[in-house]
Write a structure and sequence with these properties.
The chain has 114 residues and is α+β, with helices and mostly antiparallel strands. It is 54% helix and 18% strand. Helix 3 packs parallel to helix 5. The radius of gyration is 15 Å and the shape is elongated.
């Protein structure tokens, strides 16, 4: 757990995943989720996201003022996917799917490519 949470980037996480899989075989869902959470956390840190919270209908992403988000990508996402972006920097997304996976997809979609 400590090695997963302290991994410096996604490449380190990938190597650690391979090492644990080689040693123990197929990983339980809880360990798979731990790796997904670690990837999401690293991405959120890189993008300067303040918080990600589960809501009754999906999730909410609170963006820092200097978040590495493309305004164009964010507006396109809101217009096409029916999400809501509040004036205080919270992106609310409705989702009934895997919240970790869906949140990661949204962050990748709105991230500033520079």
């Amino acid at each position: 757990y400590k090695r997963i949470s302290s991994a410096s980037d996604e490449e380190v996480l990938r190597k650690l995943y391979e090492e644990i899989s080689d040693r123990y075989g197929k990983l339980p869902e809880s360990v798979e989720n731990l790796f997904e959470y670690a990837k999401l956390r690293k991405l959120a840190e890189e993008m300067r996201v303040l918080s990600i919270d589960k809501t009754p209908t999906g999730f909410a992403i609170k963006l820092n003022q200097d978040a590495k988000v493309s305004p164009e990508h964010l507006m396109n996402f809101v217009q096409t996917d029916g999400a809501v972006f509040t004036p205080n920097g919270i992106l609310r997304v409705e989702s009934k799917e895997n919240i970790l996976e869906e949140t990661r997809k949204v962050l990748e979609q709105i991230r500033n490519d520079n």
